[in-house]
Design brief:
Elements: E1 2-8, E2 11-17, H1 23-30, E3 49-52, E4 55-58, H2 64-67, E5 71-73, H3 86-94, H4 103-116, H5 122-128, H6 139-149
Parallel strand pairs: 1-5
Antiparallel strand pairs: 1-2, 3-4, 3-5
Helix pairs in contact: 3-6
Bound molecules: FE2/S2 (inorganic) cluster (2 copies).
Length: 159
């Protein structure tokens, strides 16, 4: 076991963990931040997506020892003073979830995208979200939510 100081959602948190334990495991099992989900554990589904220095990463693939210098943001860190982020609110407004298991990862990937590109095209959204899998097939509503968060109406019209 080693001690690590992680910067998670703006707080400095001390954790003891094996160096090769995944960031996902540390977040969920040692820091009780269970909004980040375990899906495949192999970098294939996106359920575990968090942001590190603004970039979407698959936390199941990142050892905690590599995360100690980064500013980590999880789904719990998006809400500020009880107010959902624009992406969270857009997912709610569009009903962009069914079982909700993929939703945290979807929102984190979408947030990372919109932080780097305020008005992504449809193709850019699809490309950025390509590694996030929704087994319930809510992709049309997820895309609509991201477009809403980007300030565009779902149908591309004049709303
Ligand atoms: S659990 Fe990390 S990508 Fe599936
Ligand atoms: S809403 Fe169920 S996996 Fe996406």
């Amino acid at each position: 076991m080693s001690e690590f100081v992680l910067n998670v959602n703006g707080a400095q948190l001390h954790v003891n963990a094996p160096e090769d334990e995944s960031l996902l495991s540390v977040l969920r099992n040692r820091l009780n931040l269970t909004g980040t989900k375990y899906g495949c554990g192999e970098g294939q589904c996106g359920a575990c997506t968090v942001m590190a220095d603004g970039q979407a990463i698959r936390s199941c693939l990142v050892p905690v020892s590599s995360a100690a210098l980064a500013k980590i943001v999880t789904i719990e860190g998006l809400e500020v003073d009880g107010k959902l982020s624009r992406v969270q609110q857009a997912f709610l407004d569009e009903g962009a979830l069914q079982c909700g298991y993929c939703t945290s990862g979807m929102i984190m990937s979408a947030t990372s995208l919109l932080n780097s590109k305020h008005k992504p095209t449809h193709d850019e959204i699809v490309e950025a979200m390509n590694g996030n899998v929704c087994r319930c097939g809510t992709y049309p509503r997820i895309l609509a939510a991201i477009r809403r968060a980007a300030g565009e109406p779902e149908d591309g019209g004049s709303r």
